[in-house]
Amino acid sequence: MIDREQIGMRIGVLRKKTGLSQQALAEKLGVSAQAVSKWESGKNLPDIDLFRELAWIFDMTIDSIVEGDLSFAQKSGGKSLPANVAALAPGAERRRLLQSLVPYCSDAELYNVAKGLADGNLELSLAAGIRQKNRLTEKTAAIPLGILGENTLRETAPYFSKALGEMMGNTEPGLRRIAGMIRCPECGEELELVNKDERNLYFACKNGHRYHVVDGVVDFGSREIKGELWSLFLKNYQDYLNQQRSPGNPRYLMGTVPCRELRWQVLKKLRPRVILDIACGMCSGLGYDLQRINWPCLVIMSDLSHRVLKYNKRYFSEEMVNPYVDIVCLACDCAHLPIDDCCIDMVVSNAGFESMQAKMMDGFREGYRVLKPGGHAVYNISIVGDHSSENTQKWERLYRTLEEADYSIQEKLYDIGEWEDICKAAGYSSTETKEVYGGAARAGGRGISL
């Protein structure tokens, strides 16, 4: 017999673990927040088609959501505590407590619980009520969780995780997920998400540096290149929409093989869970892929311009909604990313490195720094086959006629061999180049394996 209450409990704890509010989950599924509330209270069950969507969003099987608690906990119950959590819990009892929460809490939530316990700001205990018969006398005894047996801990963990999630507040899941990945650009310390209320949301480090979330964008105070405020060509959000909806030059988009299709084929094969778009601009490159991603994914858009990013945030949240994708926008210097080492699955860039002009190589090296071992960088860039061909020499002569200020955009046009040497020097172990435009230049959709 199906137990609606237990299914509702599992949906609730998975939603909290994923960092979603009831409203956010409802929007991803195309239902009302009241419907989600009724599922979690056990009053109703989702339609069978929605169970498939829930399984995708929560990265669980449908059986794991519908079946009993033991089956539900099996998938993540054997997972080890994250290193930063284990470091805050040297005692065996506290580790056992935190381990019981693993199936129900995200790594960021586990860290916050462990930190609260270590700092003495959080105490978890069971309350047992005692009432003397035929009298009004009542007592409540607080039972420390450390003395509870394994079975009791397993049975109470969903309830504690639900209460802890409510205490921590509901913010956008992307912001919660990135909390353990970003660092203060001023001092390098870890940034924690502080949620005073919906209008006062910011990241802060232990040294007091704060970076507020403004119009849905984490604002690190970056500014566009002096004298080249490129984003001002967009007068307002309607101008931005006109640009996004423009079909563009069909010949440019086509190439020998469509560049965006080459990139999508790599993404589809590798299915990265965390993607960073460096110097994303209007995200015209990754935007093609965001319509097609059908696996749980966090996309981080980074650019100097807060103005364009706030338009990106609105557009991709309203008109390009993908229930599998959470988007975070970082207004920052992409040559000095506020992102920790080795935490990104894939770096992408649609001519973004070149748009960084004098900082191009700094941005390229930053892309390598933040990639996980085994991660990939997929990007397009202007390079030539070699310098000896007549056609290439014509392009290089034209390139040298640019004003000196413009010529500093890139000191030279690299050929394939030179660029592969640069990739090797940056740390990449292998490169693969796909020709998009023949003749004078090549654009590489380079799947680069670490």
Helix content: 40-55%
Q: What percent of residues are in strands?
A: 15-25%
**Protein structure class:** alpha/beta
In round numbers, the mean pLDDT is 80
What is the terminal-to-terminal distance?
A: 50 Å
Specify the biggest β-sheet: 10 strands, mixed
Summarize the structure in words.
A hairpin with a 6-residue loop joins strand 1 and strand 2. The chain contains 21 helices and 14 strands. The chain has 450 residues and is an alpha/beta fold. The model is unreliable at 69-77, 405-409 and 439-450 (pLDDT under 50). 43% of the residues lie in helices and 16% in strands. Helix 1 (4-18) crosses helix 3 (33-41) and helix 2 (22-29) crosses helix 3. The strands form three sheets. Strands 3-4-5-6-9-8-7-10-11-14 form a ten-stranded mixed β-sheet. Strands 1-2 form a two-stranded antiparallel sheet. It has a two-stranded antiparallel sheet with strand order 12-13.
Layout of SSEs?
Elements: H1 4-18, H2 22-29, H3 33-41, H4 48-58, H5 62-66, H6 69-77, H7 83-86, H8 92-101, H9 107-119, E1 125-131, E2 138-144, H10 150-168, H11 173-178, E3 192-197, E4 200-204, E5 210-214, E6 217-219, H12 237-245, H13 250-254, H14 259-270, E7 274-277, H15 286-290, E8 297-303, H16 306-318, E9 325-331, E10 344-350, H17 352-355, H18 360-370, E11 371-380, E12 382-383, H19 390-400, H20 404-407, H21 416-426, E13 442-443, E14 448-449
Parallel strand pairs: 6-9, 7-8, 7-10, 8-9, 10-11
Antiparallel strand pairs: 1-2, 3-4, 4-5, 5-6, 11-14, 12-13
Helix pairs in contact: 1-3, 1-10, 2-3
